[in-house]
Give the backbone structure.
Amino acid sequence: MTQSSVENFKKAKAGALISIAAYTLISIFKIIVGNIAKSEALSADGLNNFTDIISSFLVLIGLVLAQKPADRDHRYGHWKIENLASLVTSLIMLLVGLEVLISSARSFIKGNHSTPDLLAAIVGVISAGVMLAVYLVNRRLAEDAHSSALKAAAKDNRNDVLTSLGTAIAIFAATMGFSWVDGVTAIVVGVMILKTALGIFRESAFSLSDGFNDKNLDDYIVAINDIEGVGGIKSIKGRSSGSNVYLDLVIAIDPEMSVRQSHAITEQIRVMLQDQFQIYDVDVHVEPDE
């Protein structure tokens, strides 16, 4: 494992631990206060945060297992476990989202509209502030560590800020006499959990199926063509494994160039891609420019 990979792992691990601590406190607080203050919206939001505890644990486990060195059965390492952890997280969130949506809708249809205590709204505002801080920290750590799992967690943090604010506003409206708003907000929370789960599932499945962003490939092509001696790019393929990017290139060079000169160009390409785009591994094949 390179020094860069070690540093990235430490940053991603720190983000996961911060999320676990924040979500544990907020989830317990919301569920307890939600039951005491008779707020379905706050209780639903607390369950949403409970799924975040599980997802953060999965992210942490995925990050740790992804650092295992390559072995006989995993020649390319275990990096994709990070993507797999995100996929499992999305499935758990999907199940909890369905439960929150179904139970909230059933309660609303039955007409169980109780007026919550104002304390529930205050808890919602405080939670939004805490999650905003967690989101900003995790977004920065995810960018520095190039961690797909932590990026997914940061997106969930951002959604939790909006959900907590929406919950607080709904509870406040309910205390003003619009008791049905609390139940509607609980339904909306369930929908938001499902939306986030589907988004994370889509991104994880895309990476696990070796999907890659064409825009990134275009940026690589421009940079490679700027290197002296490169006569063109015949093919370029990219794939991601966890937070790492692998590239396979076929470039055209002058057929009269010596092996030593052509090798120097491939090394220049490799170093440039690693330094400028943080590419983990580059495989360059050389063909004559015809």
Notes: Residues 210 and 239 are 5 Å apart (CA to CA).
